[in-house]
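Thread title: Can someone regenerate the structure for this chain?

I was given the following input by a collaborator and told the matching structure tokens would be attached. They weren't. Posting the sequence so someone can regenerate them.
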Amino acid sequence: MAIEAAITLKTEGISGVGRERIRLLQAVAREGSISAGARAAGLTYKAAWDALEAMANLFGQPLLETRTGGRQGGGAQLTPTGLRVIEAFGRLESEMTRVLRTLEPDLAGSGISPLNLVTGFLMRTSARNALRGTIVAMRSDTLNVEVAVAVSDDTTIYAHVTQESARALGLCVGREAIVLVKASFVFIAPGDAPPTVSTRNAVHGVVRRCETSAINAEVILDIGGDKTLVATITAHSAQALALTPGKPAYALFEAAHVVIAID
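Best answer:
Regenerated them for you:
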């Protein structure tokens, strides 16, 4: 049976960038809008937005340029980065397919398939937020290191890791890294003034969306630079805080709750 590679790009906090999300990106470009692209890809508008935001966070740059026209209107087209992502993904799948077919004869009779190898190299995690940036500062004591990662011109996120982890990952100023934060670790404080709290991270932004169920609410905060942070809070809190789109707010979370990943 012929082997064909189906690539999924994953890191902590990303639910997977694979063929489906690349096809969504292609559909949005082809149809000229996010709503039409979502319909063509068989997704809800919210699911499409979530996927596009996750891709922008992972790759660190906007993949789409949107034109004004309201949440359900306007248009969208690929940025040069979006075009390169689609092209590179296609090449990656083609090359991986070629490599897997080359490996198959060598693994015959071993009980290991090429697909076993690929699965072993990929990890799945549950963190909702993953933002790419550059390490701009590191401060150490005898046991731990505080790592400052600039994810945009205006936003720096701090993480606490052990000395051993910093060495194992090869962390240094100037190196690209991905910061990972579970949405349940993020608290929301509305307002333009920084709140008086002890949490190391207080990231300013504007509420983009607030999706509420009977018990919980998912708050998507636009933090600038085409980046977003997601918080999961109670529906009661979301109602009490009146988290409507366009409202300024801060995302609050401890440095100890931030995980650092590298490519």
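The first strand starts at residue 64 and ends at 67.
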